[in-house]
Amino acid sequence: MSEPGLPSPAVVTCLAGNRRIKGRCGPCCAWAPFRSNNYDVVRELVSAPGAARRGTGGRAVCACSREEQSGDIAIVGLSCRLPGGITAPEGLWAALATGRDLVGEIPADRFDALRFVDPDPRRPGKAYTAAGGFLADIAGFDAAFFGLSPREASRMDPQQRLLLEMAREALDDAGIDSGTLAGSDSGVYVGVSNANYGQLQYARPEAITAYTMAGAALCNTANRISHLFDLRGPSMAVDTACSSSLVALHQACAQLRAGDGGVALVCGINLLLSPGDFIGFSKASMLSRSGRCRSFSADADGYVRAEGGAAVVLKRLADAKADGDTVHAVVLGTGVGADGRTPGLSLPSALRARLSVFGGLDDPMVDPGTLHERGACTTADARVHRFPGGHHCLRTQVARVVGRLTDDLLAAYRSPASG
To answer: CA 20 to 30 Å from 259, out of 13, 26, 287, 338?
Structure first.
């Protein structure tokens, strides 16, 4: 970052100056209780989410109070795959409550770390770190359950396989029989950027089969789901780098707000299968030598790559209530924007980030602590969400924790799936 004239400390200093906007505390200062890995507040909220709490500094920790609006979108189903063997949202909460560190070393079934990792950044063809967040199992897949032959499944990007599993689980969590969606104009939106599996196949031309093209195409991360469930609404893969999954969410919300279809599936996925990306990001001095993400901190020394995926089922809030669905969360608004011309292609604009993040605060009933933004490097997008009352009520501090898992819990960054 120093070559274009904007070193990391300058970025941190610039962002630190934007902590208080419109006379309110923004997410940066509101996050203070968790910067030192203090999870006491989280444990209290997870164990008794309905109770009123106060965070450090005397700030009230409370859910938003706001009248329902026609554009509100309900999240009615959830599923996930995260490092540390987490395969369900309950596992994520358990990790939050205990403050687990889920960063590890590159598994042997990805690639030979000894061959491609060297602490000397000057070594050609080498990455200087092997740290990352990795899924426990990316090979296991019941092809017959999804009506696929073993031969076809072997050429499918494992990202496609995981997405099929998570989509089915998210619908189950929503209590939706997938058969009732067949022939509907339900949409599927997937945030994805990594094409490692296809690249590995193309590197061995003799291994290419009739199933390679479809199995390697990123567009089929979404189309596999639409094909499996016979969904006939929009079906698209969204690649905007770090913000891919939230831009996918934005597109899905736009579909539902326009009155098109009654259900939308939104997914994000990222797997790390090749040493090439580790090497490239090392040469750009983007990866953390300490193996930890410390976003906007003076101690930041880069980021940590990670695998992971998630799927959510969306409905219009009014429809979800009418159907008697469990509402996990409500999306109040979304927005998408680019930084324009900055000193370098991958360098963010502090001003543009501020406008994106606080653009959702025009509604006085929206707590700024519930704002989530992703994509500080390339394309910036934001969403505001609140968690309804009852046993699904998550206080503001927990919302902030979820928005910053990459730093204090997982300490790794799932890139296109990070939203």
So the answer is: 338
